[in-house]
């Protein structure tokens, strides 16, 4: 092992590639360092400090997500000072805003008042909509802290609910900046930014207007990136809990890119869609159709049997009956008016294989080149 490419983490030596951060080396070697603001494939900001580690000889703890590994570094990822720092950061974050999950003290009056206030703000008597699926809550359990050490601070911004897809709840925003990076660096939509200053800091769109009045295209990348309950899908909020669903991996059916996604299924119904972060080609990103356009799956308007129109009315038919009718009609048209009197339009909403078959059928059976596809436009 070349010494100039060697770093020691928790007493074990590991090699690193030039430019790799301490966090990347640790994760590659299955050493868990918690993160909040770190977003894969975005520039590290070092904003939250929860990933702090102790490096021998350094004057203070260093953010592992933003510190390059260097030769002969001696790193501790769970030393006493690291754990104390993480406890403090978690306590500060929990005490700022409506963090009403089971991580505050449970036996003082302040707790009751706090819960009542949050229930009013949320218009729900349930605990936080992302309870059980929140990085801050996980940290609270991991480091055994609650939000009662510091006086709770009230949120100054109201919830934004005026679009069909995303609820922005600033009372639970920890200002990690992941949404901003997801929007600007991953999706490159540039719809949201940090606004105002100091204690007034807020994530804003279009000079602090609702998302629907901004450049937002509702891809939902920011929702998937948000580590807490500040950005939640409207149809999911307080309606779907992760332990009620099973995840089924599949390929998006909307276009030929082939984005990998998880269908979250409850009682045989799709109730949420998320991107598969570890798989090509999309690595977790989706567009508005792939992420939010899943209602059609369970729509009662979907056709389940072929319909034949007779005397202005549709009637149900068997596949054999419907296919015989189409074949007969196409044959008649071809005979009477020639092959080029027929055109075939296919769709991006079917598979490549189905489009290939349509192409073959058009050119080899119908004997015309009149075939086109909506994705070409
Ligand atoms: S956002 Fe996380 S930490 Fe805050 S209340 Fe919800 S579950 Fe708890
Ligand atoms: S939904 Fe997409 S475009 Fe809109 S703010 Fe979030 S990441 Fe940006
Ligand atoms: S909305 Fe979520 S992702 Fe964005 S800064 Fe707040 S906590 Fe972080
Ligand atoms: S995760 Fe490293 S500073 Fe936030």
Structure description:
By secondary structure, this protein is an alpha+beta fold. 26% of the residues lie in helices and 17% in strands. It has nine helices and 16 strands. It has helices spanning 22-28, 80-95, 109-122, 135-142, 178-186, 221-225, 288-292, 319-337, 352-365; strands spanning 6-9, 12-15, 52-55, 62-63, 74-76, 166-168, 192-195, 202-205, 231-233, 246-251, 260-266, 269-275, 307-310, 313-316, 344-346, 371-373. It has a five-stranded mixed sheet, sandwiched between helices. A hairpin with a 2-residue loop joins β11 (260-266) and β12 (269-275). The chain starts with 5 loop residues before the first strand and ends with a strand. Bound molecules: iron/sulfur cluster (3 copies) and FE2/S2 (inorganic) cluster. The site of one iron/sulfur cluster has 12 residues, from α4.
Key structural traits:
377 residues, alpha+beta, five-stranded mixed beta sheet, 9 helices, elongated, binds iron/sulfur cluster, binds FE2/S2 (inorganic) cluster
Write the layout of secondary structure elements.
Elements: E1 6-9, E2 12-15, H1 22-28, E3 52-55, E4 62-63, E5 74-76, H2 80-95, H3 109-122, H4 135-142, E6 166-168, H5 178-186, E7 192-195, E8 202-205, H6 221-225, E9 231-233, E10 246-251, E11 260-266, E12 269-275, H7 288-292, E13 307-310, E14 313-316, H8 319-337, E15 344-346, H9 352-365, E16 371-373
Parallel strand pairs: 1-5, 15-16
Antiparallel strand pairs: 1-2, 3-4, 3-5, 6-9, 7-8, 10-11, 11-12, 13-14
Bound molecules: iron/sulfur cluster (SF4) (3 copies) and FE2/S2 (inorganic) cluster.
One iron/sulfur cluster (SF4) binds at residues 99-101, 128, 130-131, 134, 136-137, 172, 228-229.
